[in-house]
Amino acid sequence: MADLHGRSVVVTGGARGIGAAVARTLVKEGAGVVIADLLAREGRETAEALGPQAVFRHLDVTDEHEWRRVLDDAEAVFGPLAVLVNNAGIVDFGGVESESPAQFRHVLNVNLVGAWLGMHLAAPRLRAAGDGVIVNVSSTAGLIGYSGISGYVASKWGLRGLTKAAALELGAAGVRVCSVHPGPIRTPMTADMDPGIAAGQPLPRFGEPEEVAAMVGFVVTEATFSTGSEFVLDGGATAGAALVVPS
What we know:
247 residues, alpha/beta, Rossmann fold, 7-stranded parallel sheet, 7 strands, globular
């Protein structure tokens, strides 16, 4: 898919951070972008800054009715759906013993069930269009384990698996489904995190939202023979343990 002109894109969690950067990138590619988020003020400000090719719509990703309304609006305003970027996500700190069942379910409902709802409702529209791309923003927590965020890890591994299942189901219809796996990225959600957690990476820094957005743009417009694939942006953190070679 190289031409997004006359087509609509929905970016969840699009009001700020990675989602806003993705929206900016896909507007530059010619798409009409619906910034779907719970954050109304930030969402409207982001849409206004992008001009007539972007609008804000309120979306609770756990609400099927709101999903239907957002997808209907996207196609009514900008044309047939071309891309869904499932970026909305939350993290709740708690391990297997300390996280409550309610907390665990809430994280899964937003990060995994919410993405599934979007895919479930977007897939028939993409089939009807004869092509399209779904990009699921997972995490390095969908590739390796982390302690203290059990619900988040479970949700991101689940999203990685869901991506592969959907890729198998939708490929014959011309619809590609891929996952993107950022490491620590400088966003409002990570503002309170110790920057030292990136010190052991081969690239010892946090990534920027624009770097993730560039990867999403690549997946959408250039990676036309990729589906069910994982695209990793983590400063090398998952490359393996560093080896100290004696001199």
